[in-house]
Amino acid sequence: MDHMLNKVLRVGQLYDFYNALLTEKQRECLNMHYLQDLSLAEIAGEFGVSRQAVHDILRRAEQTLEEYEEKLKLAARYNYERKVLAEVVEQLRHLPMGVKQLPELEQIIITLSSLLEDTREV
Predict the structure, then answer these.
(1) CATH of 2-72, one of 3.90.230.10, 1.10.10.10, 1.10.3210.10, 3.40.30.10
(2) HSE (CB half, 13 Å, CA atoms) of 57?
(3) Is residue 114 helix, strand or coil?
(4) What pTM was estimated for this model as a whole?
(5) Residue 21, Cβ neighbours under 10 Å: how many?
(6) Per the database entry, which stretches of residues form a coiled coil (predicted)?
């Protein structure tokens, strides 16, 4: 179960970064399967193809997403930057009270925190 959830999250994140680089059919199949939670049979019925054809499209699309990530590393960089940003915010929040009361520093903490909140977890 945990493996499947990780796969769904991974494909979702890669889809967010690279979906424009997929074919229309690959995008539609990934969207239907992972975002709309349709079964292979339901997707096959929608396209008028076999379940095996849908499975193959999904497998190739997932492989393509992984290949783009391997080359471009956009998701890895995004995850790393979010981790570093969260660590910086945490360090700033633990500064002594006198230091944190500097208006400029408080604004920096607010701004950095809002960056973490505005970007969604992928």
Answers:
(1) 1.10.10.10
(2) 22
(3) helix
(4) 0.80
(5) 13
(6) 51-78
